[in-house]
Design goal:
12 helices; MetI-like fold
Length: 274
């Protein structure tokens, strides 16, 4: 008797589960668990990383990310307003900035601020200023498009109602439009915070004192003194301590806001429009 469509689908799923079980069993039998434990789960090496991996590296990663995000959010808001400005030169400047810094690697910005700017202009930034500027400059290019989309997503009727009450354009923007826009864009901004957390690892190109190490730099230094890859695993878990809660927060905020999609270049696959 021929199987129905539902029965064929069920049989296919069962066969896939059986295949996965067989593959897992084969891997479990042929794997060298002693070598895996020595290479990835060396508890002696992991113990030596504590508490500094938390009190120094994880803390510094959070500080660097917060500085970059705060500067990037402020600059991104300015760029978004410039992009929506009726003054054409403002729109051109914002568009050029966004296109340029969305197109170049963040590593180049770190290099420029760490080595290029001191050589060309004689300006020397401390470690916190360098990270804040580098992460913020790149992050602002992405956040500007998100904020711009959020502002445009605010219903026009609310703007018209505010203006009919006698509010000026500036007051309407500050008290009505921007607060509602930020409520809409909280999920994508949370995702940008996750990206900045990972981009903070680019600070490795700058000479750092031990008390300035972030997670990746700390892991690289520990790895250079250890025959095991355990430091990389520990550092990866520390990043997950940061990014997993932020990911859950982003999904929660998206549900709270009704999962409203923004017309950003990332969601449409299009570049920034002039």
């Amino acid at each position: 008797m021929a199987l129905s469509k539902r029965q064929r689908a069920k049989a296919f799923r069962v066969s896939q589960y059986a295949l996965l079980v067989v593959v897992a069993a084969v891997l479990a039998l042929v794997a060298d668990w002693h070598e895996i434990q020595r290479s990835f789960f060396n508890f002696g090496v992991a113990a030596e990383m504590f508490p500094n991996v938390i009190t120094v590296a994880l803390k510094n990663t959070l500080v660097y990310t917060a500085l970059g995000f705060a500067f990037g959010l402020a600059l991104g808001l300015v760029l978004a307003l410039m992009k929506l400005s009726p003054v054409a030169p403002y729109r051109w400047i914002a568009t050029i900035y966004i296109e340029f810094f969305r197109g170049v690697p963040a590593l180049l910005v770190f290099i420029a601020l760490s080595f290029g700017v001191p050589l060309a202009f004689g300006l020397q930034f401390d470690i916190y200023s360098t990270v804040m500027l580098a992460l913020g400059i790149v992050g602002a290019a992405y956040m500007a498009e998100t904020i711009r989309a959020g502002i445009q997503a605010v219903p026009k009727g609310q703007i018209e109602a505010a203006r009919s009450l006698g509010m000026s354009q500036g007051r309407t923007l500050l008290t009505v439009v921007i607060p509602q826009a930020f409520r809409i864009i909280l999920p994508p901004l949370t995702n940008e915070l996750i990206l900045l957390t990972k981009d903070s690892s680019l600070i490795y190109i700058i000479g750092l004192a031990r008390d300035q190490y972030e997670l990746t730099k700390f892991g690289r230094e520990t790895l250079s003194r250890s025959p095991s890859l355990t430091p990389i695993l520990v550092v990866g878990l520390c990043y997950l301590i940061i990014t997993l809660p932020l990911g859950h927060l982003s999904r929660y905020l998206e549900r709270r806001t009704g999962g409203k999609k923004l017309s950003t270049p990332e969601s449409t696959g299009l570049g920034v429009s002039a």
